[in-house]
Amino acid sequence: MYYFVEPMTEDDIPEVQQIESQSFTTPWSATTYKREIRNRASCRYLVARCSPTPLPPDQGAAPQSRNLGLLSQIVAALFPPARRSTHSCPIIGYGGLWLTGEDAHVTTIATDPQYRGFGVGELLLNGLIDAAYEIHAQMLTLEVRVSNTVAQRLYVKYGFQPGGTRPRYYTDNGEDALIMWTESIRTPEYRSRLSELRRHLHIRLQTQAVRRRSSIRVL
Ligand SMILES: CC(C)(COP(=O)(O)OP(=O)(O)OC[C@H]1O[C@@H](n2cnc3c(N)ncnc32)[C@H](O)[C@@H]1OP(=O)(O)O)[C@@H](O)C(=O)NCCC(=O)NCCS
């Protein structure tokens, strides 16, 4: 499978909500999503899609993918030219952020349970980091359940560190939130670390895609 990321549109909301209902106990309403997507001044929302065949970043119906900065380098390498619309490619994950002052707050990120463990969450987080960079954020922050060690590992991989807790933050079970912060995402050190992580992610996604294509050919 080939995975790619592009900006979320209002048409995407029903598919996003399906994944959300399998991922979170207190899902957002469609109205909330619409409001977030329309607030271009301070919000960015992305979807990850999958395709059984290569999809170009600069053809088809996904011109916005080109605006995802460094991420497009990964995407461009993965999707050699072909003509295809992204509308037939199912949504397998999504994520979003708010710009608050100089910081970007990751509001949500989730991968379809059937596609977890294949690098989709990492691809989405990369898209969010690029979006934060492009809207001039200095640092990223987020809240995560103290019990959610899977998500915490993803965040730590991308330089988030614990910076405190919000007691009983989650209303469904009264669980505490761990607050995590990156260092500045604009320093040469962070950019260099990010490049290295992206190089590994690129290799991982490419290897998975090639394996999948050869197994289809064998079958
Ligand atoms: C958190 C989530 C988005 C990760 O998505 P994913 O597509 O499965 O993640 P990836 O395959 O890209 O994995 C990226 C990293 O996440 C961590 N990770 C993913 N699955 C893991 C697992 N089962 N156990 C431990 N760490 C795991 C690892 O650090 C991994 O990097 P690695 O492969 O180098 O070890 C996904 O588990 C999810 O949707 N969870 C439910 C929603 C949620 O909790 N969102 C976070 C809210 S704060």
**What is the CA-based Rg, rounded?**
17 Å
Major β-sheet strand ordering: 1-2-3-4-5-7-6
SSE topology string: EHHEHEEHEHEEH
Bound molecules: coenzyme A
Reported by name, the CATH topology is Aminopeptidase
Overall CATH architecture: 3-Layer(aba) Sandwich
- Uncertain segments are 59-68, 79-84
Question: How many structurally independent domains?
Answer: 1
Per DSSP, the total helix count is 6
| Mean pLDDT reading | 87
Tell me what the structure shows:
This protein has 219 residues and is α+β, with helices and mostly antiparallel strands. It has one domain: 3-Layer(aba) Sandwich (Aminopeptidase). Helix content is 38%, strand content 24%. α3 runs parallel beside α6 (188-218). The two termini are 15 Å apart. Bound molecules: coenzyme A (COA). Coenzyme A binds at residues 23, 109-111, 116-122, 144, 148, 150-151, 153-154, 157. Residues 23, 109-111, 116-122, 144, 148, 150-151, 153-154, 157 line the site of coenzyme A.
Task: Give a brief description.
The protein has helices spanning 13-23, 30-38, 71-78, 120-134, 149-157, 188-218, and strands spanning 2-7, 43-51, 91-100, 103-111, 139-145, 161-166, 177-181.
